[in-house]
Design goal:
By secondary structure, the protein is mostly helical. Among the domains are: 40-102; 152-276; 289-360. It is 76% helix and 0% strand.
Length: 379
Protein backbone atom coordinates (compact mmCIF):
# COMPACT_ATOMS: atom_id res chain seq x y z
CA UNK A 1 0.00 0.00 0.00
CA UNK A 2 2.87 2.32 0.86
CA UNK A 3 4.61 1.64 -2.48
CA UNK A 4 1.40 2.30 -4.39
CA UNK A 5 1.01 5.67 -2.69
CA UNK A 6 4.59 6.61 -3.60
CA UNK A 7 3.95 5.70 -7.24
CA UNK A 8 0.75 7.76 -7.29
CA UNK A 9 2.52 10.79 -5.83
CA UNK A 10 5.33 10.43 -8.39
CA UNK A 11 2.82 10.21 -11.22
CA UNK A 12 0.99 13.29 -9.94
CA UNK A 13 4.30 15.16 -9.63
CA UNK A 14 5.29 14.19 -13.18
CA UNK A 15 1.85 15.23 -14.50
CA UNK A 16 2.05 18.54 -12.61
CA UNK A 17 5.55 19.24 -13.97
CA UNK A 18 4.38 18.42 -17.50
CA UNK A 19 1.42 20.82 -17.13
CA UNK A 20 3.76 23.53 -15.83
CA UNK A 21 6.11 23.02 -18.80
CA UNK A 22 3.20 23.19 -21.27
CA UNK A 23 1.93 26.33 -19.52
CA UNK A 24 5.37 27.97 -19.75
CA UNK A 25 5.68 27.05 -23.42
CA UNK A 26 2.18 28.35 -24.10
CA UNK A 27 2.93 31.60 -22.22
CA UNK A 28 6.17 32.05 -24.15
CA UNK A 29 4.19 31.71 -27.41
CA UNK A 30 1.30 33.94 -26.32
CA UNK A 31 3.30 36.68 -24.54
CA UNK A 32 5.87 36.89 -27.34
CA UNK A 33 5.10 40.26 -28.96
CA UNK A 34 6.69 39.31 -32.29
CA UNK A 35 4.65 36.13 -32.77
CA UNK A 36 1.47 37.73 -31.41
CA UNK A 37 1.67 40.77 -33.70
CA UNK A 38 3.03 39.15 -36.86
CA UNK A 39 1.26 35.84 -36.31
CA UNK A 40 3.72 33.70 -38.27
CA UNK A 41 7.19 32.23 -37.85
CA UNK A 42 9.29 33.76 -40.62
CA UNK A 43 12.20 31.38 -40.12
CA UNK A 44 9.87 28.38 -40.29
CA UNK A 45 8.28 29.76 -43.46
CA UNK A 46 11.73 30.32 -45.01
CA UNK A 47 12.77 26.80 -44.11
CA UNK A 48 9.51 25.47 -45.59
CA UNK A 49 10.11 27.46 -48.79
CA UNK A 50 13.67 26.14 -49.04
CA UNK A 51 12.46 22.60 -48.36
CA UNK A 52 9.74 22.97 -51.03
CA UNK A 53 12.31 24.35 -53.51
CA UNK A 54 14.72 21.54 -52.71
CA UNK A 55 11.93 18.97 -53.22
CA UNK A 56 10.95 20.58 -56.55
CA UNK A 57 14.61 20.59 -57.72
CA UNK A 58 14.95 16.94 -56.71
CA UNK A 59 11.69 16.16 -58.53
CA UNK A 60 12.84 17.96 -61.69
CA UNK A 61 16.21 16.18 -61.53
CA UNK A 62 14.46 12.84 -61.07
CA UNK A 63 12.12 13.55 -64.00
CA UNK A 64 15.11 14.58 -66.17
CA UNK A 65 16.89 11.35 -65.20
CA UNK A 66 13.72 9.37 -66.00
CA UNK A 67 13.46 11.12 -69.39
CA UNK A 68 17.11 10.36 -70.18
CA UNK A 69 16.64 6.74 -69.13
CA UNK A 70 13.45 6.50 -71.21
CA UNK A 71 15.25 7.86 -74.29
CA UNK A 72 18.10 5.40 -73.78
CA UNK A 73 15.64 2.54 -73.31
CA UNK A 74 13.79 3.56 -76.48
CA UNK A 75 17.05 3.63 -78.46
CA UNK A 76 18.08 0.26 -77.01
CA UNK A 77 14.64 -1.17 -77.78
CA UNK A 78 14.89 0.07 -81.38
CA UNK A 79 18.35 -1.48 -81.74
CA UNK A 80 17.14 -4.76 -80.23
CA UNK A 81 14.08 -4.72 -82.48
CA UNK A 82 16.25 -4.17 -85.56
CA UNK A 83 18.62 -6.94 -84.46
CA UNK A 84 15.71 -9.30 -83.76
CA UNK A 85 14.20 -8.48 -87.16
CA UNK A 86 17.51 -9.19 -88.88
CA UNK A 87 17.93 -12.46 -86.95
CA UNK A 88 14.37 -13.49 -87.80
CA UNK A 89 14.95 -12.70 -91.47
CA UNK A 90 18.26 -14.59 -91.44
CA UNK A 91 16.71 -17.62 -89.68
CA UNK A 92 13.80 -17.66 -92.15
CA UNK A 93 16.26 -17.48 -95.04
CA UNK A 94 18.32 -20.33 -93.59
CA UNK A 95 15.17 -22.42 -93.00
CA UNK A 96 14.06 -21.81 -96.58
CA UNK A 97 17.51 -22.77 -97.88
CA UNK A 98 17.49 -25.93 -95.73
CA UNK A 99 14.04 -26.88 -96.99
CA UNK A 100 15.09 -26.37 -100.59
CA UNK A 101 18.20 -28.54 -100.11
CA UNK A 102 17.25 -31.17 -97.52
CA UNK A 103 13.46 -31.40 -97.55
CA UNK A 104 12.65 -31.91 -101.19
CA UNK A 105 9.36 -33.65 -101.99
CA UNK A 106 11.08 -36.55 -103.73
CA UNK A 107 13.14 -37.28 -100.58
CA UNK A 108 10.01 -37.81 -98.41
CA UNK A 109 9.18 -41.19 -96.92
CA UNK A 110 5.65 -41.31 -98.32
CA UNK A 111 6.41 -39.57 -101.63
CA UNK A 112 5.53 -42.76 -103.45
CA UNK A 113 1.90 -42.37 -102.32
CA UNK A 114 1.36 -39.13 -104.24
CA UNK A 115 4.14 -39.42 -106.83
CA UNK A 116 2.71 -38.33 -110.21
CA UNK A 117 5.06 -40.74 -112.00
CA UNK A 118 4.23 -43.72 -109.76
CA UNK A 119 2.61 -45.67 -112.64
CA UNK A 120 5.72 -45.31 -114.74
CA UNK A 121 7.93 -46.50 -111.88
CA UNK A 122 5.64 -49.39 -110.89
CA UNK A 123 7.10 -52.91 -111.30
CA UNK A 124 5.27 -55.92 -112.72
CA UNK A 125 3.33 -58.14 -110.26
CA UNK A 126 6.16 -60.69 -110.11
CA UNK A 127 9.77 -60.39 -111.15
CA UNK A 128 10.98 -63.82 -110.05
CA UNK A 129 11.04 -66.35 -107.28
CA UNK A 130 13.12 -64.06 -105.10
CA UNK A 131 10.76 -61.19 -105.46
CA UNK A 132 10.46 -59.63 -101.98
CA UNK A 133 6.91 -58.61 -102.66
CA UNK A 134 5.70 -62.17 -102.74
CA UNK A 135 4.17 -63.28 -99.41
CA UNK A 136 3.55 -66.67 -97.79
CA UNK A 137 0.58 -67.50 -99.92
CA UNK A 138 2.65 -67.33 -103.07
CA UNK A 139 4.81 -70.29 -101.95
CA UNK A 140 7.94 -68.38 -103.10
CA UNK A 141 9.55 -67.74 -99.71
CA UNK A 142 9.66 -69.84 -96.55
CA UNK A 143 10.26 -68.91 -92.96
CA UNK A 144 13.94 -68.78 -92.03
CA UNK A 145 15.22 -68.45 -95.59
CA UNK A 146 17.19 -65.36 -96.66
CA UNK A 147 18.82 -66.14 -99.93
CA UNK A 148 19.68 -62.54 -100.84
CA UNK A 149 21.07 -61.41 -97.46
CA UNK A 150 24.64 -60.89 -98.72
CA UNK A 151 23.45 -59.02 -101.77
CA UNK A 152 21.13 -56.94 -99.63
CA UNK A 153 23.90 -56.01 -97.19
CA UNK A 154 26.22 -55.18 -100.04
CA UNK A 155 23.57 -52.98 -101.60
CA UNK A 156 22.92 -51.30 -98.26
CA UNK A 157 26.62 -50.55 -97.82
CA UNK A 158 26.84 -49.18 -101.33
CA UNK A 159 23.78 -47.02 -100.73
CA UNK A 160 25.23 -45.80 -97.43
CA UNK A 161 28.53 -44.96 -99.16
CA UNK A 162 26.64 -43.16 -101.90
CA UNK A 163 24.72 -41.12 -99.35
CA UNK A 164 27.94 -40.27 -97.50
CA UNK A 165 29.62 -39.28 -100.73
CA UNK A 166 26.57 -37.26 -101.72
CA UNK A 167 26.54 -35.45 -98.40
CA UNK A 168 30.28 -34.81 -98.60
CA UNK A 169 29.96 -33.50 -102.14
CA UNK A 170 27.00 -31.41 -101.10
CA UNK A 171 28.98 -29.86 -98.22
CA UNK A 172 31.94 -29.22 -100.50
CA UNK A 173 29.64 -27.73 -103.12
CA UNK A 174 28.04 -25.49 -100.47
CA UNK A 175 31.45 -24.27 -99.36
CA UNK A 176 32.48 -23.69 -102.97
CA UNK A 177 29.24 -21.84 -103.63
CA UNK A 178 29.79 -19.69 -100.54
CA UNK A 179 33.36 -18.89 -101.57
CA UNK A 180 32.21 -18.23 -105.11
CA UNK A 181 29.49 -15.90 -103.86
CA UNK A 182 32.07 -14.07 -101.71
CA UNK A 183 34.36 -13.76 -104.72
CA UNK A 184 31.45 -12.50 -106.82
CA UNK A 185 30.57 -9.95 -104.11
CA UNK A 186 34.16 -8.73 -103.97
CA UNK A 187 34.31 -8.49 -107.76
CA UNK A 188 30.99 -6.68 -107.79
CA UNK A 189 32.25 -4.17 -105.21
CA UNK A 190 35.46 -3.66 -107.19
CA UNK A 191 33.46 -3.23 -110.38
CA UNK A 192 31.14 -0.74 -108.68
CA UNK A 193 34.14 1.22 -107.37
CA UNK A 194 35.69 1.28 -110.83
CA UNK A 195 32.39 2.31 -112.36
CA UNK A 196 31.98 5.07 -109.76
CA UNK A 197 35.53 6.31 -110.46
CA UNK A 198 34.84 6.19 -114.22
CA UNK A 199 31.57 8.09 -113.73
CA UNK A 200 33.42 10.64 -111.59
CA UNK A 201 36.03 11.12 -114.32
CA UNK A 202 33.28 11.46 -116.93
CA UNK A 203 31.46 13.99 -114.73
CA UNK A 204 34.69 15.99 -114.25
CA UNK A 205 35.39 15.95 -117.98
CA UNK A 206 31.80 16.94 -118.75
CA UNK A 207 31.98 19.76 -116.22
CA UNK A 208 35.22 21.01 -117.72
CA UNK A 209 33.74 20.86 -121.23
CA UNK A 210 30.65 22.70 -119.99
CA UNK A 211 32.80 25.38 -118.35
CA UNK A 212 34.83 25.82 -121.55
CA UNK A 213 31.67 26.04 -123.65
CA UNK A 214 30.11 28.49 -121.20
CA UNK A 215 33.27 30.64 -121.24
CA UNK A 216 33.28 30.66 -125.05
CA UNK A 217 29.58 31.52 -125.10
CA UNK A 218 30.11 34.33 -122.57
CA UNK A 219 33.00 35.74 -124.62
CA UNK A 220 30.88 35.62 -127.77
CA UNK A 221 27.98 37.29 -125.93
CA UNK A 222 30.29 39.98 -124.54
CA UNK A 223 31.71 40.65 -128.01
CA UNK A 224 28.20 40.84 -129.48
CA UNK A 225 27.05 43.18 -126.70
CA UNK A 226 30.09 45.39 -127.29
CA UNK A 227 29.31 45.57 -131.03
CA UNK A 228 25.65 46.36 -130.28
CA UNK A 229 26.67 49.10 -127.85
CA UNK A 230 28.99 50.63 -130.48
CA UNK A 231 26.16 50.58 -133.02
CA UNK A 232 23.71 52.12 -130.56
CA UNK A 233 26.24 54.81 -129.59
CA UNK A 234 26.87 55.62 -133.26
CA UNK A 235 23.11 55.74 -133.92
CA UNK A 236 22.57 58.06 -130.94
CA UNK A 237 25.35 60.36 -132.13
CA UNK A 238 23.80 60.50 -135.61
CA UNK A 239 20.36 61.23 -134.13
CA UNK A 240 21.79 63.98 -131.90
CA UNK A 241 23.54 65.63 -134.82
CA UNK A 242 20.34 65.48 -136.88
CA UNK A 243 18.34 66.87 -133.93
CA UNK A 244 20.81 69.77 -133.50
CA UNK A 245 20.59 70.58 -137.20
CA UNK A 246 16.79 70.49 -137.09
CA UNK A 247 16.71 72.82 -134.06
CA UNK A 248 19.14 75.25 -135.64
CA UNK A 249 17.06 75.45 -138.80
CA UNK A 250 13.65 75.34 -137.00
CA UNK A 251 11.12 78.21 -136.90
CA UNK A 252 11.51 78.60 -133.12
CA UNK A 253 15.21 79.46 -133.21
CA UNK A 254 14.72 81.62 -136.27
CA UNK A 255 12.16 83.60 -134.11
CA UNK A 256 9.23 83.84 -136.47
CA UNK A 257 6.19 85.33 -134.77
CA UNK A 258 3.67 83.78 -137.11
CA UNK A 259 4.56 80.23 -136.19
CA UNK A 260 2.94 80.44 -132.69
CA UNK A 261 -0.60 81.16 -133.97
CA UNK A 262 -3.01 78.23 -134.17
CA UNK A 263 -4.77 78.18 -137.54
CA UNK A 264 -7.74 76.21 -136.14
CA UNK A 265 -8.32 78.38 -133.03
CA UNK A 266 -6.94 81.93 -133.16
CA UNK A 267 -7.43 82.40 -129.36
CA UNK A 268 -4.92 79.62 -128.62
CA UNK A 269 -1.22 79.37 -129.39
CA UNK A 270 1.11 76.53 -130.17
CA UNK A 271 3.15 76.11 -127.01
CA UNK A 272 6.27 74.70 -128.60
CA UNK A 273 6.39 77.68 -131.03
CA UNK A 274 5.38 80.46 -128.59
CA UNK A 275 7.93 83.27 -128.18
CA UNK A 276 6.31 85.14 -125.29
CA UNK A 277 3.40 87.47 -124.45
CA UNK A 278 2.66 90.80 -126.03
CA UNK A 279 2.62 94.10 -124.01
CA UNK A 280 -1.20 94.16 -124.12
CA UNK A 281 -1.38 90.66 -122.66
CA UNK A 282 1.11 91.61 -119.94
CA UNK A 283 -0.96 94.72 -119.02
CA UNK A 284 -4.15 92.61 -118.81
CA UNK A 285 -2.49 90.10 -116.48
CA UNK A 286 -1.13 92.89 -114.23
CA UNK A 287 -4.61 94.44 -113.99
CA UNK A 288 -6.11 91.08 -113.00
CA UNK A 289 -3.39 90.62 -110.37
CA UNK A 290 -4.17 94.07 -108.88
CA UNK A 291 -7.86 93.16 -108.62
CA UNK A 292 -6.95 89.87 -106.88
CA UNK A 293 -4.70 91.75 -104.38
CA UNK A 294 -7.55 94.16 -103.52
CA UNK A 295 -9.91 91.22 -102.97
CA UNK A 296 -7.36 89.49 -100.71
CA UNK A 297 -6.98 92.72 -98.63
CA UNK A 298 -10.75 92.89 -98.18
CA UNK A 299 -10.89 89.28 -97.01
CA UNK A 300 -8.03 89.94 -94.56
CA UNK A 301 -9.81 92.99 -93.09
CA UNK A 302 -13.05 91.00 -92.65
CA UNK A 303 -11.08 88.25 -90.90
CA UNK A 304 -9.43 90.78 -88.55
CA UNK A 305 -12.83 92.28 -87.63
CA UNK A 306 -14.19 88.78 -86.86
CA UNK A 307 -11.16 88.01 -84.67
CA UNK A 308 -11.61 91.31 -82.78
CA UNK A 309 -15.26 90.44 -82.07
CA UNK A 310 -14.24 86.97 -80.81
CA UNK A 311 -11.55 88.51 -78.57
CA UNK A 312 -14.09 90.93 -77.07
CA UNK A 313 -16.53 88.06 -76.44
CA UNK A 314 -13.75 86.04 -74.76
CA UNK A 315 -12.83 89.01 -72.53
CA UNK A 316 -16.44 89.41 -71.41
CA UNK A 317 -16.59 85.66 -70.64
CA UNK A 318 -13.41 85.88 -68.52
CA UNK A 319 -14.81 88.86 -66.57
CA UNK A 320 -18.05 86.95 -65.86
CA UNK A 321 -16.06 83.91 -64.69
CA UNK A 322 -13.92 86.08 -62.34
CA UNK A 323 -17.05 87.64 -60.86
CA UNK A 324 -18.59 84.19 -60.29
CA UNK A 325 -15.36 82.94 -58.67
CA UNK A 326 -15.28 85.92 -56.27
CA UNK A 327 -18.87 85.21 -55.25
CA UNK A 328 -17.99 81.54 -54.63
CA UNK A 329 -15.01 82.58 -52.45
CA UNK A 330 -17.24 84.87 -50.35
CA UNK A 331 -19.74 82.01 -49.86
CA UNK A 332 -16.90 79.62 -48.94
CA UNK A 333 -15.54 82.06 -46.30
CA UNK A 334 -19.00 82.45 -44.81
CA UNK A 335 -19.49 78.67 -44.70
CA UNK A 336 -16.04 78.19 -43.08
CA UNK A 337 -16.86 80.87 -40.45
CA UNK A 338 -20.11 79.10 -39.57
CA UNK A 339 -18.31 75.73 -39.39
CA UNK A 340 -15.64 77.15 -37.05
CA UNK A 341 -18.35 78.52 -34.76
CA UNK A 342 -20.08 75.12 -34.69
CA UNK A 343 -16.79 73.28 -33.98
CA UNK A 344 -15.97 75.68 -31.12
CA UNK A 345 -19.38 75.09 -29.58
CA UNK A 346 -18.99 71.31 -29.99
CA UNK A 347 -15.50 71.43 -28.36
CA UNK A 348 -16.91 73.34 -25.39
CA UNK A 349 -19.63 70.72 -24.97
CA UNK A 350 -17.09 67.87 -25.14
CA UNK A 351 -14.82 69.60 -22.60
CA UNK A 352 -17.77 70.06 -20.24
CA UNK A 353 -18.68 66.36 -20.61
CA UNK A 354 -15.05 65.36 -19.95
CA UNK A 355 -14.89 67.52 -16.84
CA UNK A 356 -18.13 65.93 -15.62
CA UNK A 357 -16.74 62.42 -16.17
CA UNK A 358 -13.38 63.21 -14.54
CA UNK A 359 -14.74 65.08 -11.53
CA UNK A 360 -18.09 63.38 -10.95
CA UNK A 361 -18.19 59.88 -12.50
CA UNK A 362 -14.56 58.60 -12.47
CA UNK A 363 -13.36 59.72 -9.08
CA UNK A 364 -11.21 56.61 -8.27
CA UNK A 365 -7.64 56.62 -9.71
CA UNK A 366 -6.08 53.49 -11.26
CA UNK A 367 -2.90 52.07 -9.72
CA UNK A 368 -0.20 49.73 -11.12
CA UNK A 369 -1.62 46.80 -9.17
CA UNK A 370 -4.84 47.02 -11.21
CA UNK A 371 -2.92 46.51 -14.53
CA UNK A 372 -0.64 43.75 -13.19
CA UNK A 373 -3.53 41.40 -12.50
CA UNK A 374 -4.15 40.95 -16.25
CA UNK A 375 -2.24 38.61 -18.68
CA UNK A 376 -0.84 36.44 -15.90
CA UNK A 377 -2.13 33.18 -17.42
CA UNK A 378 -2.43 31.77 -20.94
CA UNK A 379 -6.04 30.68 -20.42
Amino acid sequence: MYKVDIQLEQKQAVATEARRNREKQRQSQIFNVRNRVIGVDVEALKSQVQERKRQEDAKWAQEAAFDTTAVQCDLLAQLLEKEELQNTRQVAQQVQTFRERKQRPQDGRDFNLYDPASLRKEKPPQVGDLDPRCGLSSIQLFAGEDLGQTTCQHLQQEQFLKELNYQREECCQAKKDEKYSEILDDQKLIEMDLQAAHLGDLETACRKATDVAMANYNRAQAKEVKVQRCLVRQREQDDNLADICNHLTSDMLTEKSSVSSNPCNPHKVILDHWKGMSPEQVATIQKEQMAQRLEAQQRQQAKQRLEAEWALQEQLTVQAACQLEREQQVQARELRRNLDTYNKQLAQEQQAQKNYLDKVVYTNELTAHFHLQFNTSSR
